[in-house]
Structures are given as structure tokens and as C-alpha cells.
Amino acid sequence: MTFHRRRSVASFLLLTCQVAALGLAVVLQYLSSRRMGVMRDLVFRRQVLEKTLLAPQIMTVYQFGLLLGAVVCLALLVRRAGAGQREAPASGLLGALVANLVALGLISLPAVERLLAYPVFVPAALIAVVLQYVKLLLWSVPVRQGRRGAAAAFGSGRPSGD
Amino acid sequence: MVTPRKAAKRPESGGIPHLIKRLRHCEHMIIIIVVINTCYGWERGLVGVQFKPAPRGVRALISACLLVLWLSSLVAAAGIPAISTQQLRDQLGKANWVVVDTRLNDAFNGWKLEGVSRGGHIKGAVDFSARWLKVADKDKEAKLERALKVKGITPEKNVVLYDANGKDALEVAAYLQKNGFKNLYTYDVKEWAKDSRLPMESYPNYHLVVPAAWVKELIDSRNNGKPYRVFEVSWGKTSKEYDKGHIPGAVHLNTDDVEEAPVWNRLSDPRLEKFAADYGITADTTVVLYGGDPVAAYRVAAILKYMGVKDVRVLNGGYAAWTTAGYEQETKANEKAPVASFGAKVPVNRGYIVDPPEAKAILADKKGSKLVDIRSWDEFTGKISGYSYITAKGRPAGSVWGHDLADFRNIDLTMRNGAEIAAMWKEWGITPEQRVAFYCGTGWRAAEVLIYADVMGWKKIALYDGGWNEWSMSAGNPVETGEPKRK
User: Nearest chain B Cα to A34, which residue?
Assistant: First the structure.
């Protein structure tokens, strides 16, 4: 399998994980109005997580981190556009910017905060952002140098230069 | 085996007139229709499918077999001898005789149904309702066999099956014959009920759990002008079961409107007053509660009784009792009809539901009181918590096991025989002289058992609302795990 194809497969798998994480939150929110056990479980999880991962101070840290990430991605995009480069990873940067903004919305909007599955939406959004950064790193490895770089970084098992 | 030489002849039993009378019953008409269709086949089946009649010889053979099977079951059942009142009196209480009430559970409990002049069951009789034979349950055979064993209905005994309609006893007889029973007799309980000298018993508060016929009469007569409400009780703002079909006039009652997170206890007293007013309930309203699974109805019933509603009833057996009775179902949703106020200061019956201080006092009074656990054995011993939202496992230290909810229900979700319930509890030292508070995880299962204890006439009973969920939240509450030492 060529490096490019491997990269595409890895990218697809990462996208699947992102969709699964957010999809789980959506499914649980749907079920929370249909199954008492799901509803009570989500209420319990929120109660527990509000003392730890969803504590107000930690939420501020998340929001700051996402905002910072969005600003950095935007700055890099503007720099790339100004320098006339239109190749990847501009699309990766754009994806990361969008992921940061969406995640920021999911964890900050009052309408989302009122949802019963909010304790699932927050980690799902953060996981999606982290995976987006991983994809960005993946696409930042240039194709031409990819074979040698890939062999070192991803261990293709093939002799380099073929 | 006693040969009843002068057996009382029941007009409905035995002979061709009886067989013809049974032809009127729907289930036998269905068999006739099947036989006719087998013979002549269908010209059109379901959409896109056409059934062709089987060859003539095959059709004749199948029809003959079905007819023989059907007739043989009727003949076998019709051939069961009847027993006289005097003979029944003589055999009552003997170890090798068992008297079985095959009527609806409601009749056994105390309701006067099917023209019987006195409600209740013959003193000393056990229950095995003919309705249980028709329940759709994947473990039906095992449950029925277990019921027979627990009630002492065994093939070596002489078994008297009684009913009031001439049908139930024969249905149960046919079932028992298939399971190897030979010494069977039938009896018309109307004869027993006519004579007030003959002992019959019913539960002191049998009126708390009602038959479908009573609810039908209530609705048809509009409770003779007195206020009443019928509620389908289940969790959720909407209910699929309610939408599919409900008792005419029933309103959906969301259990989230009577309890709140995180402990899932009943609402505070002022909020309960508001809830009642919103749902059109006053202290003088006759409130009928039911559900697909009746546990939610019992939960609300316990809360309404605590509040002070004087007339609270629960449909025995849940919505299935209504549909099995063949009564009309409605699909149009009904809105709540609020009233100005509940009309009493909540709670009128303070002691009916208790909280941790009272639960601790009950535990402290080891001889005179019992805190009774209505959860599974694994939950009680701390093997599992039983809930995804309760992490702690175990039980309040000093509580006793009162059996899981499933042990309090018959296969048709009706209330189990009170004598059997009392026997289960006696094994664990739970007696009616004590002050008894029932608890479970969050108060649902325990509420159903509380109402059953109320039906049985137990006086010093209560529901510990918070249950294991609330008890385990406080680090200072004593907890224990493992199997208790049985005294």
C-alpha cells in the first residue's frame, strides 16, 4: 500500500472515530427521552462529572484552549493564503479551525448545556478536536519525502526508495 | 379416591347440551374456522400471495385430526365429576385434598363477580386462575409448574376446581389432565357463597386493587356524579403505550411529575399539592391508576395515599386486564383537567412514606420494627447495585430481605396470594404486628409491595422513599454486604 493510500485510510478511520463520538452523544440524547434508565444515568453522570471534568474552572480551561486553537489555526491559514500556497494542509487547518469552533459552541451554548447528554457531548467534542489535530499532523507530512519519512515514522516494513 | 355417589349435577357439566353451549365460546369457533379453511383453502391470501387448497384427501385427513383433537379435549374436560357442597365441606382442610379457585384473581381477593353473592374465596382454598393459561409469556410453562408446586397442587392429591361460570374450572382441569392429574372435581362456588354459614375469606382492603369490570362501571356511570380521574401511569412526557391505546378518558401521568433527581424521591409537599391540582386531583377524587407495567401506577398510588387522596385504586394486572376483558380502547389523547387546589394540606397520611430519620429509628427497634428490602437477592447481598446510576452495593445494616417484586406477582401481573406473601415474609421474621417499612432502589418496587401489604390489611406499614439510592449517598449511614445470618 502506498504511503498516500495508508494516510487516506488512517484519515478515514479518524473521521469515523469523530463521527462515532459525536454520534454516541446524539443517540444518548435521543434515548434520554425514551428510556428512564438512560435519563437517570445521564443525570447521575452529570452530577459526578460536575465535580471533576465538568467543573466550572475546568470548563474555562477547555474554552480557552479551544479558542486558542481556533486562533492559531486561523493565523496559520491566513499566512498560507497570503503566501499563495493552496495545497494541503490548508484543508487540514480549515478542518481544525472548524472543529475548534464547533467544539467551543457545543460546550458553551446554553441550549446544549441544558441537554441531558451534555456530559457526553463535552468529551465527544474534545475527542473530535484532538483527532482533528492528529489528522492535521498526518497530512502535514509531504508526499515526496513521505516514503523515507513514512518508513521512519510509520514503519512500512519495506526497504526505502522502492 | 372418594367416589361421589351422590354428586351434585351441575347443569352445565357433561353431555351434548354442554358441548353445544361451549361452541359459543370464541376459541372453539376459531378452531372450526381453521378446519373449514383447511378444507377449502384460500383463494386469496395476503397481498401478492395466493394459497391453493391442499389435495382433497389431505384436507379431509387434517380436518378429521383437528376435529378429533378438539372433541377429545372437550369430552375429557366435560367428563370431570362435580362434587357436592357437603362433600367439599367434609374434605376441606385434609392433607390429600386441595381446593383451587380458578376464577379471576380479583374474585379470589374479595370482589363479587359473575353473580356470586359473597366476595372472596373459600377459606383454605388456593388460587390458580384460568386466565393464567392464556398469558403470553416465554417462560409460561415453567412459571405455571412452579405455581402448582408452591400452592401444593400435586397429582397425588384430590383437586377440587371451583368457578362461577362453568368454564374456568374445566379449562384448568384440561391443563391439569395434560400434566398427569387424575383426581379432579369441579364445583360451583355460587352454591357455597349462598350459604352464609360456610366460610369465605377476602382481604381486608381488597378494594384497593380493582378488576377491569369495576373501572368499566365507574366510567359508564361517571362515578354517579362524583369526581373521578383515570390515569395511565408511565415515565416520560409522552407514552408509546398510551398512544397505542388506553382506557377511554384516561390521561397520561408522567412519573417525573411526582419525583425529582438526584435521589428520585417524591416532590416536596407544596410541589405535590401543585402536581395534584395540575392533574385535576383533589383529596375527594376517586383516582384510578394503571399502566402496561403496573409498578409505576403503584408508585403514584403510594404517593397519592401519602398526600391524603381518600379513594385511590389500581387496576389489578395492569392494562392487559382491560384488553383481555375485551373493553373498548381509545387512541385519542386526553388533556389534563386542572382544579383550583388539592383541597387538603399535604401530607394527610404522614407515616405512609418515611425518610432516613424514620428508617434509622426502624432499624434501631430490632424487635418491634423491620426495614424490608424489596430488591433481588444479588442486590441485597451487595453482589450488584442493580442500577447504572447507583454505584454503591449493599444494604442498610440491619435490614431484612423481603423478596424481589417478581415474587409478589402472578404470571398475569396480578397480586399474588396474600397467604403466600405472608409465609414468605414470616420466613424472614416479618410479621404484621411489627412496624414495617419497605424500600428498594428508588421506591418503585417497594411501593407496589406496600399496596399489597395494605390490601392484606397490614396496618403499620410505610414506604422508605429514598431507598438504597438515598441511603448509600450518605457516608455516615451503616451499610452491610454478604448473606445475612438466618435466625
Answer: B236
- Which residue among A34, A37, A47 sits closest to B262, beta carbon to beta carbon? A47
- Is A40's CB within 8 Å of B237's CB? no
CA distances from B433 to B92, B174, B452, B458, B461 (A): 29, 42, 16, 8, 10
DSSP code per residue over chain A? --HHHHHHHHHHHHHHHHHHHHHHHHHHHHHTTT-HHHHHHHHHHHHHHTTTTT-HHHHHHHHHHHHHHHHHHHHHHHHHHHTT--STTHHHHHHHHHHHHHHHHHHH-HHHHTSTTHHHHHHHHHHHHHHHHHHHHHHTS-STTHHHHHHHHH---SPTT-
Which of B259, B388, B473 to mutate against chain A (most A CBs within 10 Å)?
Answer: B388
CA distance B186 to B456: 28
Omega prior to A89 cis, within 30 of 0: yes
**SS3 label, residue B86:** helix
Reduced to 3 states, what is the DSSP secondary structure of residue B400? strand
CB contact under 8 A, B236 and A34: yes
Put simply, whether A37 touches B (Cβ < 8 Å) is yes
Q: Do B389 and A41 touch (CB under 8 A)?
A: yes
Look up cell 383537567; give the residue. Answer: B337
pLDDT tens digits for range B368-427: 999 999 999 999 999 999 999 999 999 999 999 999 999 999 999 999 999 999 999 999
CA distance A59 to chain B (A): 22
Report ipTM (2 d.p.). 0.78
Give the pLDDT of residue B37. Answer: 58
Query: Residue B262: its chain A contacts at CB < 8 A?
Result: 43-44, 47
pLDDT digits (tens, 9 = 90+) for B156-203: 999 999 999 999 999 999 999 999 999 999 999 999 999 999 999 999
Has B440 been annotated as catalytic? yes
Q: Does B243 touch chain A (CB under 8 A)?
A: no
* Nearest Cα to Cα of residue B185 among B87, B113, B107: B87
Q: How far is Cα B304 from Cα B444, in angstroms, rounded to an integer? A: 14
- For the sheet with B126-127, list strands across it: B126-127, B97-101, B158-163, B184-188
CB contact under 8 A, A40 and B264: yes
Task: Check if B428 contacts A (Cβ < 8 Å).
Answer: no
Distance CA B195, CA B193 (A): 5
pLDDT of B17 higher than 60? no
Q: Are residues A143 and A79 in contact, defined by beta-carbon separation less than 8 angstroms?
A: no
| pLDDT band of B73, cuts 50, 70, 90 | low
Show the DSSP H helices in B42-94 as ranges.
56-78, 85-91
Task: For residue B444, list chain A residues with Cβ-Cβ distance below 8 A.
Answer: none
Q: What is the dihedral of CA B475, B477, B482, B485, to 10 degrees?
A: 160
pLDDT average, residue stretch B95-103: 97
- Of the candidates A51, A50, A45, A19, which has an alpha carbon nearest to the alpha carbon of residue A32? A45
Measured between beta carbons, the chain B residues lying within 8 angstroms of A34 are 236
SS3 at position B204: coil
